[in-house]
Write a structure and sequence with these properties.
Layout lengths: L2 H12 L3 H10 L6 H8 L12 H16 L15 H12 L3 H10 L6 H6 L14 H16 L24 H4 L1
Length: 180
């Protein structure tokens, strides 16, 4: 996943307007114009598309933390020059104040199962022997689960159920006429 895709998905999940997105960048001390934001939100093949670099996405995610949890006292958070999926996932966890079981619930909504041990491996230091790299597929499923939880929470998702068997003599399932 590229940074632009993450930015687009987060905008969709929370239904943020341009002005809200600009304000989130401003929380983390980055002034973004509407034209810059529009270029980052375009699809890769659209005319006028510009790539959102790691530092810009890190700034947005730090601003999202401030938007969701409030500003902390002291100096502003350091903006990472290089981002990876593990850092993106960690910043989303902090912004949404999620525990492991809540993250697993979000992933379950996206029909993706993971154990607590697998999940905790994403948040370990890269030098740790149990560190695991967060792949694009995992981050994509997590963002999809966020969409289902936060954006589509009013839509009821019904689990799949096989249709009842019908008897050849009757069109109604399990009818008394069919059993005689």
């Amino acid at each position: 996943m590229n940074n632009n895709d993450v930015l687009r998905r987060l905008r969709y999940v929370y239904d943020y307007s341009d002005s809200t997105m600009i304000a989130i960048f401003r929380h983390a001390q980055l002034k973004v114009t509407r034209a810059e934001l529009s270029a980052w939100l375009k699809k890769d093949e659209e005319e006028g598309f510009e790539e959102c670099n790691d530092e810009q996405l890190a700034t947005f995610l730090n601003g999202l933390i401030i938007e969701k949890r409030g500003a902390k006292e002291g100096p502003p958070a350091v903006i990472e020059k290089k981002l990876n999926n593990n850092l993106i996932l960690k910043k989303l966890k902090i912004a949404l104040n999620l525990r492991s079981d809540e993250m697993m619930e979000i992933l379950t909504l996206a029909e993706f199962r993971v154990s607590k041990h697998e999940l905790s491996a994403f948040f370990r230091a890269p030098a740790h022997k149990h560190y695991r790299e967060c792949l694009d597929q995992f981050l994509r499923h997590f963002l999809g689960g966020m969409k289902l939880k936060y954006r589509d929470k009013n839509e009821v998702k019904t689990p799949f159920a096989w249709p009842e068997k019908t008897d050849a003599k009757s069109d109604t399932p399990n009818s008394p006429e069919a059993k005689s």
